[in-house]
């Protein structure tokens, strides 16, 4: 994005840290930042990357990007994306609001206002007080219900997590990913990078769990 290149890291840090109040953004800078934000918000993903393929990219290997995404897949954009996490439903809670009013930052700000009959601080000092209030509110926020410690992971008996152990190179095993199973062979590229190849299609298989193939049934006598 060429407009983003027109800003130096130092200038962006000045704006985000409120130092720009002594040298506020010009109309040109404000318009450019608005266009950058608008382009990021309007951007559509060009494809989707499977979550477990991130390790492939980190190891320098290729990874497939699919036109349609499934649950847990990562959207891939050509435009830099903004860091704008969604606010959880129900925020701020009553406890969060109370924590903000009971914080030391709120006491410092409100007492100074009462003493001086007006806004007492410079913009930077006021911003630090408000930041302190927000931190107190976030500290009182309820724990997300999808935290790993709140949901015990249930793994069917016999399945092995890929993150815990991988089969030996050349082994043919049953693989599982998002409720789908397949038959794959363990292969290796380089010293440490291992992956499954589908016995049926020959394509690289995404997998979170695997298990050895069952033994063949014994021949019946008679």
Automatic annotation (TrEMBL):
Pfam families recorded: DUF551
InterPro entries given in the database record: DUF551
Domain called DUF551: residue spans: 158-218
Name under which the protein is recorded: Protein of uncharacterized function (DUF551)
Organism: Yersinia mollaretii
Origin organism lineage: Bacteria, Pseudomonadati, Pseudomonadota, Gammaproteobacteria, Enterobacterales
């Amino acid at each position: 994005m060429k407009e983003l290149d027109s800003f130096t890291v130092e200038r962006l840090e000045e704006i985000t840290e409120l130092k720009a109040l002594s040298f506020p953004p010009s109309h040109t800078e404000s318009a450019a930042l608005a266009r950058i934000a608008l382009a990021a918000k309007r951007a559509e993903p060009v494809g989707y990357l499977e979550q477990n393929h991130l390790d492939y990219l980190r190891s320098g290997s290729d990874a497939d990007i699919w036109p349609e995404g499934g649950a847990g897949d990562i959207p891939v954009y050509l435009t830099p994306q903004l860091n704008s996490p969604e606010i959880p439903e129900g925020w701020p809670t009553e406890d969060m609001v109370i924590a903000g009013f009971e914080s030391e930052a709120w006491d410092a700000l409100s007492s100074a206002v009462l003493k001086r009959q007006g806004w007492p601080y410079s913009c930077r000092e006021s911003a630090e007080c408000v930041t302190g209030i927000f931190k107190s509110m976030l500290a009182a926020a309820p724990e997300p219900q999808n935290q790993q410690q709140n949901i015990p992971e249930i793994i069917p008996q016999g399945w092995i997590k890929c993150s815990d152990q991988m089969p030996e190179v050349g082994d043919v095993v049953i693989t599982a990913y998002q409720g789908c199973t397949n038959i794959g062979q363990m292969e290796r590229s380089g010293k440490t990078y291992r992956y499954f190849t589908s016995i049926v299609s020959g394509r690289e298989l995404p997998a979170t769990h695997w298990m050895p193939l069952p033994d063949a049934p014994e021949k019946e006598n008679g």
